[in-house]
């Protein structure tokens, strides 16, 4: 047997190639982890926006005067003393969670529909048996995350009082 056949182990080239392969895998996993953390933050912001919009619609629905609530700079809601002009925009920053400013736009309009098959004319709900014309309430919440504007919309159909 020759001396060469008895040698065992890895060459320096093999070790360097293995290190490069492992490094590429670790870098890919770290990039994936960072992107997951970023999407988790956006999900939290979206959840806060949906919760804020739901609170606005809930208080609006239960207001005796049927006025959209006023929104404070800390995202607190209070009953409006008079009928506001629509659309109305408020900017608020929640006191808990991530310090993100949300722009809340509330709007109310007379609902028309249902859409006819031809889409050329719109009917009113009163012609379909409602006592009065319902209104569509729209709450739009928008915020900015890393320079990208994000929005959620919640709508509610309510019977006029």
What does this molecule look like?
By secondary structure, the protein is an alpha+beta fold. The chain has one domain. Helices cover 34% and strands 25% of the residues. It has two helices and six strands; from the N terminus they run ααββββββ. The chain starts with a helix and ends with a strand.
How is the topology of this model organized?
Blueprint: H1 3-6, H2 12-62, E1 70-71, E2 77-78, E3 88-92, E4 102-110, E5 135-145, E6 148-158
Counting DSSP E segments of at least 2 residues, the number of strands comes to 6
- What portion of residues belong to β-strands? 15-25%
Quick one: overall form? rod-shaped
Order of helices and strands: HHEEEEEE
Give the biggest beta sheet: 4 strands, antiparallel
Q: How many angstroms does the end-to-end distance come to? A: 102 Å
Cα-based radius of gyration, to the nearest Å: 29 Å
Domain module tally: 1
Give the low-confidence spans.
118-122
Number of helices: 2
Q: What percent of the residues sit in helical stretches (DSSP H or I)?
A: 25-40%
């Amino acid at each position: 047997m020759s001396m060469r056949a008895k040698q065992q182990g890895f060459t320096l080239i093999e070790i360097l190639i293995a290190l490069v392969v492992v490094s590429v895998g670790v870098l890919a996993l770290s990039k994936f982890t960072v992107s997951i953390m970023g999407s988790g933050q956006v999900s939290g912001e979206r959840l806060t926006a949906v919760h804020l919009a739901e609170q606005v619609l809930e208080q609006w629905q239960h207001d005796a005067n049927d006025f959209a609530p006023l929104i404070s700079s800390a995202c607190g809601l209070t009953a409006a003393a008079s009928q506001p002009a629509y659309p109305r925009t408020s900017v608020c920053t929640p006191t808990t969670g991530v310090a993100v400013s949300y722009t809340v736009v509330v709007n109310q309009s007379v609902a028309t529909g249902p859409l006819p098959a031809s889409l050329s004319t719109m009917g009113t709900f009163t012609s379909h048996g409602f006592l009065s014309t319902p209104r569509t309430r729209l709450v739009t919440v928008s915020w900015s995350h890393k320079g990208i504007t994000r929005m959620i919309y919640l709508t509610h159909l309510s019977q006029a009082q």
